Amino acid sequence: MEGMYLGWGTLALINAALANIDGRSPLLYLLGSMLFGPLVTLVLAVTRYDSEKGTVFSDLIYGQKYNKAGRPGSLPGWLAAFAFAGLILLAAYVIWG
Fold this sequence. Notes:
Strand order of the largest sheet: 1-2
Number of helices: 4
Shape: flat
Largest sheet: 2 strands, antiparallel
Number of strands: 2
Structural class: mainly alpha
Oligomer: single chain
Radius of gyration: 15 Å
């Protein structure tokens, strides 16, 4: 049981560092991670902070450096985020049954 607390605390510190790198509040993400752990990690993975637009979904397929105007037929960001979350949930179900 102690290993679970150590892992949860480590995940919270990593999430706070990632939030700080992205220009978000590290304290808010640290506290959120202490309560909701992997869900906050998922939020950090599928969103990014844009100073003009606020929090937006990341382009999980092409990343930030790809020219968005030049890719016809790609998935919208929100759909890619839900697909990613579905894959994570499916993997968790397969692993832990």
